[in-house]
Amino acid sequence: MKHFPTFLLLALLLSLATGLHAIELTLTSPLAHQVVQRATPGKGLLRITGELSEDVSPEAAVQVRVVNETRQMPWLQVNSVKGRKIIASYEAPAGGWWTLEVRIMLDGKEIALGKVPHVGVGEVFVVAGQSNSANHGEEKQTPQTGLVASFDGTTWRLAEDPQPGASGGGGSFLPPLGDELARKLGVPIGFVACGIGATSVREWLPKGATFPNPPTIESRVEKRPDGLWMSKGDAYQTFLARMKPLGPRGFRAVLWHQGESDANQKDPTRTLRGDLYRQYLETILRESRREIGWEVPWFVAQASYHVPGDEGSDDIRAAQASLARDGIALEGPDSDALKGELRERGGQGVHFSGKGLREHGAKWAEKVIPWIERQWTEPRSADGGTEWSRFESLPECHSISWVSANVQSKNTKSWDGVLDESKWGTPDPQQVVGRNWDWKISNAPWAAAVQEKGEGRREEVRFDLWLPDGVKTVKGIVAISGHGSGEPLFRRADLRSLATELSLGLFKFTGNPMQRGFWPQTLLFDHLRTFGEASGHPELEHAPLFLYGHSNGTGFSAVFPSYEPERVWGWISMRPGITFQVYQPGAAQVPGLVIFGEDDHFLARPSVAENLAVVPALREKHGALWNFAVEPKTGHGPGEKTWPLVFSFLRHTFTARVPADADPRTGAVSLKTPAVESGHLGQNWDSDKGGYQDLKIAPFVDFPADKATASWLINAAYAADWQAFQRDGEIPPAE
Fold first, then answer.
1. Is it true that the peptide bond before 606 is cis, omega within 30 degrees of 0?
2. 569 with 406: CB under 8 angstroms?
3. Contact predicate 438/408, CB 8 Å
4. What is the pTM (predicted TM-score) of this model?
5. In the CATH scheme, what is the code of domain 20-120?
6. Is 709 left (phi over 0), alpha (psi -120 to 50) or beta?
7. What average pLDDT does range 690-699 have in this prediction?
8. Does 126-372 match 380-409+444-658 in CATH topology?
9. What is the rounded radius of gyration, in angstroms, for the C-alpha atoms of the chain?
10. pLDDT tens, position by position, 291-328
11. Homologous superfamily (CATH) for 126-372
């Protein structure tokens, strides 16, 4: 009788008992001990590839999570299966090592599972140059944190010397540098080492690049018939081959340590002039940036030391320093200053001793760490203005979903929303709860719930501010939930042009604790105050607001003004994911616009007619200064023809509500509230007809139909734009 290993026998018995057979999932990316470059302080994108042992149904779903000893992220569906291939992306938290788990689900059952241990999101560096960038140190180094890994172009492993992919078999400065980075930044560190001992900058040039005199070692160069020398390009191609697989912004920076083989050579005809060193290194830097497709930062060390008595070349050092001075590269450490016992053979050699390698790593860390920390917060020029960013880890108790589950009253008796049972039938209790978004939740019950239930898991929230150049006083702020279309809206050039014209700032936040709605509302003002201090515009804290939210971002744009109506001059809900979020009587006197997509599947839940009745109901019951528009032949996302209506509403509500002489530097601005009779009215879109409709508009007093439920339009100019949008699907360009 044939004997089976116990675990195989158990698997066979299980398969026979359940009628299932095992499907193997082999994951090819990421790799064990791989470090992925983080995109923000708290997260980075894992690109996942794999293959199944057999074809599965196209209905099968790919779900992903990461786990470690203390945390377990929830499963997230990221893709469907196409044949046997698995291709997906997953945003993972930065920090220590994770185990990546990928499972294939079909009809609620797991049919395949794959795992990759020790996957990290942190900081990745490419290290190049000559021996002191490679493995020629006197004493091999070992990372002490367990969070430093190296990549040789094929596999990742813990970064014990010698580093894979670089020349030499001794020690390097990368383990101590990695440890210092990991301790200070709190994330795993990855190195891609490709240094080659004794190489001149001339040997790193692209193939065919010429120079007048050869380096000391000629194996990577050749002499032309005309007497010039040229690079064979081998080192350069290896350099490119190590960077390209990491992808655009797939690593933080190049660390360049080289120059000794160009400085003060024993044969003076092999020495390179400083101006040529600068020229050649700049060529390598610019050409490699072009070929890998992005402007990777470079750190260039001061490196020209040989032995006692030959302790540096002023010419080469000046060339290296000039790249940082001229903004082409960043300043690396002055390794020429590391002498005596920090060099091999009791201070007699060019390579570093064990102590010197550790000191060398510390010097690199002193240059790199402050620069990385500035990347998240340093102002940057963009579109005729300046951008600032901040990142904060916030708990889920701030989010609208947490508040709904833990704080919101389930009593719906006092709710006066849309509920025509003759049209839609009597809803079950769950539907009633879903319709009731007329919340009255003050900070006190929210804080009590947090105290009782705990604040929940944390998630990174990104805050971005853009201000036009030259603005003296910010007159108002467009506050955007980054959910859905909010992220690209923040960066639109036409919105920034309008903001420049009106002296407005643009403010955006992305992350679940805030982007769909949040408590307490003071979170927004707290961050505006912080940005006001950073930008030199303290008036941001008191400037009036215009709010934008897409889909469930309506939980911000419609709910917030019901709590702070005196601070908001207007708001937009773009394709509300739950239309009943719009039902906010407390925001009735704040002009609002709701834009639906005719083919949006959310519009049909529970029915088109019921969703389209929400704004008319607020108009009739609470005199809401609101209007809605339906964009024919479009789904859940806005298109290019949608934005002119958004900008028209923004412009006209700002002009009508914010006094021309408003000065938020002195405190909150008193907004003007227009009388309902001062506006125009528009005939509401008819869902039975559908498509483009020529809807009547007229001044309030002249409107011939039901004034109580018609869309309220703030003035004649906006009314004309609104009418054109419903009739033609677009607004004609301004003359």
1. yes
2. no
3. no
4. 0.85
5. 2.60.40.10
6. alpha
7. 97
8. yes
9. 32
10. 999 999 999 999 999 999 999 999 999 999 999 999 99
11. SGNH hydrolase (3.40.50.1110)
